[in-house]
Amino acid sequence: xxxxxLQTILFVCGLCLAPMAFAIPFATPENNAKTxxxxxxxLADQLKNNQFKRPLYLNSEESSDNLKxxxxxxxxxxxxxxxxxxxxxxxxxxxxxxxxxxxYCQASSDKNGTMLNVNLGxxxxxxxxxxxxxxxxxxxxxxxxDYFAIQLNAEEGPLGTSDYRIWIESTxxxxxxxxLHFTYTYSFGLSGHIxxxxxxxxxxxxxxGFTASDKQTNGxxxxxxxxRGVVERNTMxxxxxxxxxxxxxxxxxxxxxxxxxxxWYSSNENxxxxxxEVEKEAYMSMKRKEYKRQQAIL
Length: 298
What we know:
- It is a single chain.
- By secondary structure, the protein is α+β, with helices and mostly antiparallel strands.
- The protein is built from 10 helices and 10 strands.
- The protein has a single domain (2-297), classed as Alpha-D-Glucose-1,6-Bisphosphate, Chain A, domain 4 (2-Layer Sandwich).
- Strands 1-2-8-7-6-5-4-3 form an 8-stranded antiparallel β-sheet, sandwiched between helices. The protein has a two-stranded antiparallel ribbon with strand order 9-10.
- The longest helix is centred in the C-terminal third of the chain and has 23 residues, at 226-248.
- The chain is globular, with a radius of gyration of 18 Å.
- The protein starts with a helix and ends with a helix.
């Protein structure tokens, strides 16, 4: 029971902060596109010069009862391709299943809208009855010729967590590229605090994030630990899932799942200090089974 609780916390900490983080500052697609383009200009130096060896900026925040993780990135895909790929709830299940802790995802629609039923669990094979489920409401916020935004939200989650929000928006750049902004937020209560404290004192005590702390070891920067470290690792894992999904679209349809698994794993291994969890064959074998199960249940 304790191990299951810790693994659940490891997943949910990738989903951060509170609903107000998703307030859209302007009412029109044109102004949202301008805002996102202004952010691209503001982050120009960080996108060119960073530890990630790709045009990417990662940020995390922590307060007394909520967390936030977000990524701004330039992707080498056209805005039309990104919009078609990510502005579709069924495609999101193919994205989410890449994460090591996502065991199943199914999109469904009824009179109340579109839902994503997501099962989360441990980093090895599990029957679905041993996993936890979170139900996300899928909403297309804005969709225009030069800007789109979608939101996934869940009012309740495991271990006293609530107000989950996943927000993604993008706008086209020159030369066929796209600027992407991806955010996770969620709120947590007392049981979440206790579970996180237990996790950080045990299996999570040596894990780190991507933000350099003020300390140095042997002339090299140390990286933050604790809750923000958890948030940053999961934020990166989800961004890499999006990136792998987009990249695999060039493959024949039947080859795409396998290619996505390979790309996600190899991208994570570019940051072994933060993201290495299992060996490649273990990950590939697990995801093949989970994807097959997901397709069969559909």
